[in-house]
Amino acid sequence: MISGRTLAQGAWCESKMCDDFTKAASLCFLSEGDFKALNLSGGRNVLVKSAYGRVVMAPRIDKGLPPGMIFMAMGPWANSLVGPDTGGCGTPQFKGIEVDLEPTDEPVMDVRSMFTNLRGAKT
Predict the structure, then answer these.
(1) Order of strands across the sheet with 100-104?
(2) CA–CA distances in Å: residue 47 to residues 15, 99, 100, 114
(3) pLDDT of 16-67, one tens digit each?
(4) In angstroms, rounded to a whole number, what is the distance separating the alpha carbons of residues 109 and 117?
(5) Of the candidates 85, 22, 17, the residue with the CA atom closest to the CA atom of residue 50
(6) Which CATH architecture has domain 2-120?
């Protein structure tokens, strides 16, 4: 998994609680072959899991991605998968994270729900 800035995510980064930010930052992009192999057509979401967390995202095809790679915008969804190791530089690794994917009928959570559900937090 690699993460980075996108125009859509950047346009809404000052309004993280709005639906437009959720729509922009909760997308993940896969190669066409991976998308089809996971049978993600028909609006199904994808569960993305790393050694550090799990998150449900809305998948999209990116014909420029090679098989076996997933791209997602930087934000709470991508951050849920990033580990704490900073390699001494103070910034975690946002690229090259090993993840597993599986189709799911679970919904994509908005930002408020994500943080409320972290470690059993209460509202």
Answers:
(1) 2-4, 70-73, 27-30, 54-61, 45-49, 100-104
(2) 25, 10, 8, 14
(3) 556 677 777 889 999 999 999 999 988 899 999 998 889 999 999 999 999 9
(4) 10
(5) 85
(6) Beta Barrel (2.40)
Which residue in 47, 42, 40 sits closest to 26, CA to CA?
A: 47
User: Of 77, 75, 41, 76, whose CA–CA distance to 59 is shortest?
Assistant: 41
106 has pLDDT over 90: yes
The answer to whether the CB of 68 falls within 8 A of the CB of 99 is: no
Q: What pLDDT, on a 0 to 100 scale, did the predictor assign at position 53?
A: 87
Up-side HSE of residue 33: CA atoms within 13 Å toward CB? 6
The pLDDT of residue 12 is 47
Helices of type H across 7-123: 7-11, 19-25, 32-37, 76-79, 111-117
Residue of 99, 98, 86, 82 whose CA lies nearest to 46: 99
Residue 7 pLDDT class (50, 70, 90 cuts): low
Q: Can you tell me whether residue 77 is helix, strand or coil?
A: helix
